[in-house]
Design goal:
- The chain is of the alpha/beta class and about 200 residues long.
- It has one domain: Vaccinia Virus protein VP39 (Rossmann fold), CATH 3.40.50.150.
- It is built from seven helices and seven strands.
- Strands 3-2-1-4-5-7-6 form a seven-stranded mixed sheet, sandwiched between helices.
- The longest helix has 15 residues.
């Protein structure tokens, strides 16, 4: 694992016990989750949902309100986050793992979501290819991540700059058709919905 990524994971390990109770959850992350979920077509009814970079499972719990029959799966590289997720979301299945090496069979997932973890991925192209691999044909990938202003991105060195053009290109290279791409919460959030061809 790359040193920067190891530092990221350790940082999330340290925060895992208090992460769910941070005021940022209600102020910021809940709005992000809602903006992302709103992009998914209303008639879509997934059998199973995978959240990559799931943290404590908060987005999965919101998804379960909309799709109560769906099987919920969470993956996160921080073991502490996974422990909290298992405690807070007893009906879901959680695994310690990274986007770049998803341990699921080909064409086995109906909806993959990832919110505010993409800038932490060590190899974004490999992660998107893995998402495309595990998605069933005509199923969806919902990606939401922060757009860091250029001045800030030089200060926040561990954060990879995300741009609409880069995301679009990564989706295309992985065989995902981009259905929608929107700015939300001012211009600080980029939400992209893709579908496996």
């Amino acid at each position: 694992m790359h040193n920067n990524n190891m530092g990221d994971v350790q940082s999330f390990e340290r925060r895992s016990s208090t992460y769910e109770h941070s005021f940022f959850q209600r102020l910021f992350f809940d709005r992000i989750h809602q903006a992302a979920l709103n992009l998914i077509p209303g008639e879509f009814n997934p059998e199973n949902i995978l959240d990559v970079g799931c943290g404590t499972g908060r987005l999965l719990r919101k998804a379960s309100v909309r799709w109560p029959a769906a099987r919920l799966i969470g993956v996160d590289p921080a073991e502490g986050m996974i422990k909290q997720g298992r405690r807070l979301t007893p009906g879901a299945t959680f695994y310690v793992g990274a986007a770049e090496s998803l341990s699921f069979p080909d064409s086995s997932v109906d909806l993959v979501m990832s919110t505010i973890s993409f800038h932490h991925w060590q190899n974004q192209a490999q992660g998107v290819r893995q998402v495309a691999r595990v998605l069933r044909p005509a199923s969806y990938f919902l990606l939401a991540d922060l757009l860091i202003p250029l001045g800030l991105s030089t200060i926040l060195r561990h954060v990879r700059q995300v741009s609409p053009a880069v995301v679009k290109e990564l989706f295309a290279q992985a065989g995902l058709k981009m259905l929608a791409q929107q700015y939300r919460i001012g211009l600080f959030l980029l939400v992209t919905l893709g579908q496996r061809n």
